[in-house]
Amino acid sequence: MDFQIAVNNSLVDVREGETLLTALRRQGIKVPTLCHMNRFSPTGACRLCVVEVEGKRDLITSCSYPVEKGMKVFTNTQRVIKARKLIVEMLLSNHPDDCLYCERNGNCELQWLADEMNVKERKFFAKKNPYFPDGSSTSVFRDPAKCVLCSRCVRICEETQLVTAIDFISRGNQMRVNSAFNKGLNVSSCINCGQCIMVCPTGALTDISHIEKVQAAIDKKKKEVLFFVSPSVTASLAEHYGLKPEKNLGELICAALKKIGADKVFDLGMASDINILGEAKQLALRIKNGAQGPLFSSCCPSWVKYVEEFRPELIPSLATTKSPQQIFGKLLKTWYTKQRKVMPDSLYSVAVMPCVGKKFEASREEMTHKGISEVDAVLTIRELMRMIRTNGIDLRNLEPVPFDEPFQGCSAAAWKLGYAGGKAEAVAQELFESMKTSDKETFKFIMPKNIAGRRESKLTIGKKTFGFAWVSGIEKANSYINQLIDQGRTDIHYVEVMACLEGCAGGGGQPINRLPEKPRNRKKICQDMEKINHWANASENSSLEKLNRSLKNSPDVDNPETYFHTHFQPREVLK
Amino acid sequence: MQPSIEPILEKFPNKQREDLIPLLQKIQDEFGFLSEEIITRVGAYLSISVNKIYGVATFYDNFRFGPVGRYHIRLCQGTACHVAGSTTLLQELEKQLKIKSGETDKEGLFSLEVVSCVGACGLAPLIEINGEYFTGLTLSKLTDILNSIREKDQTVYES
Ligand code: SF4
Ligand code: SF4
Ligand code: FES
Ligand code: FES
Q1: pTM
Q2: Exposed end of chain B (fewer CB within 10 Å): N or C?
């Protein structure tokens, strides 16, 4: 600590150069904020964070004001409280007030602020803003009427994701957040990462929900409803409900889904193993052919869309192995139907994912064959949690129910896909398994400590060394790739890119709360699950062998080599 | 075929972010409005996202995003006109023409623009249509003007 300032008449240690808000928060002093975002430069736009400083005529915004020697700060004078209350009342003046019917009811920063500021009646009556909701996207629903113009979505979309699909349009009382030419997110450059949903304080940005269509499929009983659950969903639910990472953790989710009405519930993890093996195989081939530049992972649909829109020159370097979700969907709608001797359209497949971009991925044309989509619906973790609540299920008091055959069991590697860096490690491990020269060689993949959001690691097999890197967040990915190119580096062979910071652990379909430790906790659970897993890596998953043998003999699989592959194409969007 | 904006772009060889507003201004002066194609081209040229440009351009009153109508109405909202009741006129115009400031009606007959003081405060409130001023307006005078334009436009098309 560098010096002290006075806060509410007691002395407080502060660091030179930090903002007043940072210093106050360290002391546990609560200062309301709205436009403030950790790790972003302050804008001072909403003025909710005002405090009084002795000798200053105006209240100052603590989020943008640096600490000064000799400062005397007051955080809860009547003047401060009145000013904050006025701001909240103004924000509420044109709000639709339909909290009861809002997705964010009970988890809304505007509700909390109104409560904290003791707002008891509508003070100002402004015209409700007349802008229509935008439901054109596959993933993100926007309702401008609930927007409080905090700018958090605009900034994360532009600064973290380099996409700028949404921005402030017009000014004054006409001001709103919208996509270019008010045309709708579906024709914009939006990559469906859902990071805007994660930062929105209100219900202005939410999922395009699939709950209703899934529920309808369950109720109609015309089709068999098959759920498949990503390991990272299990980890996140365990984190949320405080479940212990034990062997049968996933079986609790399975039990819940059965109660909700699922006919079958599968573990998606096996498809993750297939995906890892597929990408490792492509990597080995690429290395053998001496291809230029690294292979890029393609299991993140938002990263893929970004490449298709903004960096089409990288398309040939994207791994063409389908993502775990689509591998599983394809297996269900082809091979599995043959096994069961049923028609593909008698099955309704529902993926449960930590991601809203997966809703887009499921809707891609390549993921549909003869009018049958591989994946009929995608639920985010938020949506699953809502269904669990609606059905009155207490996850903590359930008898575990094993996942349905024949897709039981995944390796530890499948859990690695739940956090940033895990995919790179899993692929490295498989490359090692396929290239190692003797059984005495052991797999060593040391994770270096953070180098500004991206990490690199070396893998040695025999006399050869291969470079692996992982980076999350599109801005970071983009600048990392530029750097690789500018420096003419040839020592990196594989790059894992995840659009969401910290990978799927910070995915756009995760529960909404702005606690920075959440993604880390989820990662921790994934890693705990790895340790108690039966198979250490993807190629050890012995149930795959059986599947592969069966696939080879399946009439549906014309070419086992391309069966789990897809393709990408440049996209023209407004950008 | 639209004439190209390339000659205008060439006048801004530095491709700076600061070039955006003057560049848009020049384009609008020449073409009358900023189309989607134009904004997309400018975005590619200056390496700014189209959404950013659209956001910036909508911040100012003077940019248009579609062609003006055959009758372009400019309503003064300067202080004197405001005091003399121009807001009521604006509401009436928006109601009758079913467009907002900055828009053009479906038939391409009228378009509307709100401007600040045009320097004829003594004659407030006023509008200007294709260079002609209509001053000391009341709601009924305004309706008469719109009706007579509609009639005139009909006859032009019928003859
Ligand atoms: S989903 Fe991602 S890309 Fe789309 S608007 Fe939101 S932040 Fe931007
Ligand atoms: S949509 Fe949400 S995050 Fe975006 S400006 Fe409005 S309130 Fe803020
Ligand atoms: S949080 Fe400080 S001005 Fe918005
Ligand atoms: S205010 Fe309208 S002409 Fe001056």
Answers
A1: 0.89
A2: N
